[in-house]
Amino acid sequence: MKKALYVWLLVLLPALSFAQTPTAKDKAAVQEVERLERQRFEAQVKKDYAFLEKAFADDLVYTHSNGKQNGKTDYIQSIRDGKSQYEKIDVEALNVRTYNNGQTAVVNGTITITLPPTADANPNLAHIKYVVVQIKDPKKGWQVVLWQSQKQAK
Question: Residue 29 and residue 134: Cα distance in Å, rounded?
């Protein structure tokens, strides 16, 4: 019995030592990243290129739900060229976790993207699950360094 207790303590103690109570700095970072996520989606719809230039890091890796990857310049250009079009982006779920003393954020969520109507005028919706990694640059603020998404059945 004692041996089993020792084994559990050996397993649990290291795990518990990594568990931290979120600090005020962490909570503030979570709120800021949540706000920026919503603003970024809005900027993609409104084609606010100035905001997108600031929101995306120069070394961005943007992986679409079809597997295609873009860097920052290519992705923003795809919006300019009409290859990436968004009528509306609705946030259904959003979860932000911070690391590295509130300097790194991992975001996962679910969105519904309303795309421009098809030729037959049917609604064109994409239900997406995604993961984003954001890093807080001391000079530029929060920036997206990674976007990964996949379509989900609805």
Answer: 11
Task: Please choose, from the candidates 16, 123, 128, 135, the residue with its C-alpha nearest in 3D space to the C-alpha of residue 64.
Answer: 128
C-alpha–C-alpha distance, residues 105 and 96, integer Å:
7
Percent of the chain with pLDDT over 70: 82
Cα angle 7, 9, 13; round to 5: 135
Tally of CB atoms within 10 A around 140: 12
Residue at token pair 């084609």: 47
Which of 3-17, 53-67, 126-140 is predicted least confidently? Answer: 3-17
Q: Which domains does the chain carry?
A: 22-151 (3.10.450.50)
CA separation for the pair 123, 80 (Å, rounded): 23
